[in-house]
Structure formats: C-alpha cells, structure tokens
Amino acid sequence: MTALDRLSVDVGPGVTGLVGANGAGKSTLIKILLGLSPATEGRAEVLGLDVATEGAAIRERVGYMPEHDCLPPDVSATEFVVHMARMSGLPPTAARERTADTLRHVGLYEERYRPIGGYSTGMKQRVKLAQALVHDPRLVFLDEPTNGLDPVGRDEMLGLIRRIHTDFGISVLVTSHLLGELERTCDHVVVIDGGKLLRSSSTTDFTQTTTTLAVEVTDTDEHPDGTRAMRDALHARGVRTEDGSGLPGAGHVLLLTAQGEETYDLVRDVIADLGLGLVRMEQRRHHISEVFRDHDERSAPQDDQDDQDEQDDRDARDARDGDGGQRDGERKEAVGHDG
Fold first, then answer.
1. DSSP labels for 42-74?
2. Whether residues 202 and 215 fall in one domain
3. Which of 19, 91, 239, 243 is 20 to 30 A (C-alpha) from 212?
4. Which residues does 281 contact at the CB level (< 8 Å), separation at least 6?
5. What is the CA 305 to chain-centroid distance, rounded?
6. Is there a single domain that holds both residue 222 and residue 185?
C-alpha cells in the first residue's frame, strides 16, 4: 500500500496546516520528516537537514506532539516535562525553569504537581504540547492536537497554537481533519488526499472572496417560504439564482452573481417589497473543503472509466477463456475420433 504518492511541497515559517481525511497520509508524512519512518523513494529536508541521514539532528531541533497519548499516569506534569527537557539536552536547572515557564504558557501551572492520570483529556493534550515546546525548538509538529476536545477546549488549543508562533517565533506544522480549525489558525495550508497533494497555498488564497453574493432572509405569514418568494421575485427581474444550502458556511440561502452596487440595491428593494427580514447579504468566501469537492468531481468520471476498463478486461478474459475451452474441446474430440 502506498501511503504517500509523489508528494512534493515546501513548508515555510509560520503556522502551516496539513489537512486531509483520516488515512490521507498526514501522520506518515510527519514520521518521515522526523526520521522515524523511512521513505521508500524521494527525499525530504527539515531545517536544511536530510531526514534519511540526519534524523537525530532534526529531532534535537524540533518538537513533536503525537496524536495518541504517551503519558505516564503516575507522575506529575512537572516531572514528565522536566524529564523530556533533560532528554532534549537541557541541564537540570534550565530544564526545571523551562518546564515551569512552559506549563504556565499552556495553562497547567496550577495543576503541575498533580499525577497526569487524574487529568482530563484537555489537560493531557496540554501536557503533550508542553513537552513538545520545553526545549525551545525552531519547529513543532502537532498531530491532531484538538482530538477529543470539546468546542471550548478546541478554541483554547487553537489559541495556544497561534501564540506559539506569534509570541515565541516557533514555526508550526499542525495536522487536522477539521477544515474550519485550519482556516482560523494557519498562515498556509497543505491539502492531501490518498497520499497525494491536492493543493498548497496561503490561507488567504484558499478563503478569498468571490463574486457570488449569499442572501438569507426570514419567513413571514404572507411568505412562509421567504427564500422561495425572493427567488421568484429576482427571477422575474431577470436575475438568476442558485440554492446555496449545501455549501460550506451557508444556511438556507440564495446565491447570485454580484455585478456592482446595483445588485445590492436590487436585492434590498426586492426584500423590502416582499416585507421579508434580511438576515445577511455578503460576498461568499472560498472554503478549503471546496478543494476536496472539486477533486471528487474531477476524479469521478475517471473512476467510472477505470471501472469500465476493468469490466472490459474481464469480458475480454472471459471471451478468451471461452474460446480456449472450445478449442480444447475440439482437440479432444479430434483425438478421440482418431483413436
């Protein structure tokens, strides 16, 4: 099985998001970059160091927060993080000082002497983040850091990740399958699917505004389906619309192409004439999820063709097998006749 296939990407300073569905190859890529798993082909560098020959040097300069728990339950956060700092080469005094500072940064200072086994999921995630930061790395790899967290915990973790770069100048490569998290947190996003690169660009490029106007209105007693009433009124004025309910970030809305201020004026006039309430009228932004949707739409015809090709191959083999059987029968019959 191929986990990563011809994946070529450059990751610069800042916070970079690596997004893909479960099994897309995110964790495999991180392990290769850390020198923990060899690539069968190709090459990669981290901080100018070759992952195949300089893995140990890379691990001295980076931090790693694994997806799954790796925490001893019977020791405190302080003991564990100090131990990890010492393993990273810090002397005892510096390790203790850095541990205190790092646990304060991740919000565990008051709980630093409690055994980790009594921590909540969110607290354990913070311990994992602290051990990745304690030796002041130049780059940290965070593998699904919001896994298992509730919405409040996710927001707090995302805030911590953002501050890792803004406050300390540490670059971050963070993986997630939650697209909205990366849109809010990252400077750059790399999208992979099935081990292949779909797109790599700045978050601004991913989420730039479009010429599509999204309009959402309220219903009234006179118009129990306000959206339909607005659509019919706009169509009567020659304005084409689309249903945007299935798009990311859209409720029950209409989409139309904005052609200057006159489009906004027309929509407002229609809403006022119908007596509807305007919930929102805004230009849509692209979303990262559209990359996956576009990829699926492009690959679907090819998948159908591949299925047809496979069926044609099977039919051809069956035909050959049938012909061969018939010829064998003819030969046997001839031999028997000669006998």
1. ---EETTEETTT-HHHHHHHEEEE-SS----TT
2. no
3. 19
4. 213, 214, 215, 216, 264, 267, 268
5. 29
6. no
- The 10s digit of each residue's pLDDT in 159-202 is 999 999 999 999 999 998 777 788 889 999 888 887 788 888 88
Domain of 239, CATH number, reads 3.30.70
Distances, alpha carbon 139 to alpha carbons 53, 86, 253, 255, in Å: 19, 18, 42, 42
Please name the residues in contact with 250: beta carbons below 8 A apart, sequence gap of 6 or more: 214, 244, 284
Phi, psi of 239 (to 5 degrees): -100, 120
- What gap in Å lies between CA 273 and CA 311, rounded to an integer? 58
Largest separation between any pair of C-alpha atoms in the chain: 99
Give me the mean pLDDT over the 205-210 stretch: 69
Domain-embedded: residue 261: yes
Using DSSP bridges, classify how beta strands 62-65 and 139-143 pair: parallel, antiparallel or unpaired.
parallel
DSSP string for residues in 145-175: TTTT--HHHHHHHHHHHHHHHHHH--EEEEE
Amino acid at 102: T
230 close to 278: Cβ distance less than 8 angstroms: no
- Beta sheet of 209-217, edge-to-edge order: 242-243, 254-257, 209-217, 278-285
pTM exceeds 0.70: no
Token pair recorded at residue 207: 């989420």
d(CA 85, CA 74): 18
> Could you give the CA distance from residue 226 to residue 270 in angstroms, rounded to a whole number?
11
Structural domain count of the chain:
2
Task: Kindly state whether residues 267 and 144 are assigned to the same domain.
Answer: no
Order of strands, sheet of 196-202, starting from the edge strand that comes earlier in the sequence: 62-65, 139-143, 171-176, 15-19, 188-193, 196-202
pLDDT digits (tens, 9 = 90+) for 80-133: 999 999 999 999 999 999 999 999 999 999 999 999 999 999 999 999 999 999
Name the token pair of 37: 């798993």
Provide φ and ψ at 337, rounded to 5°: -65, -40
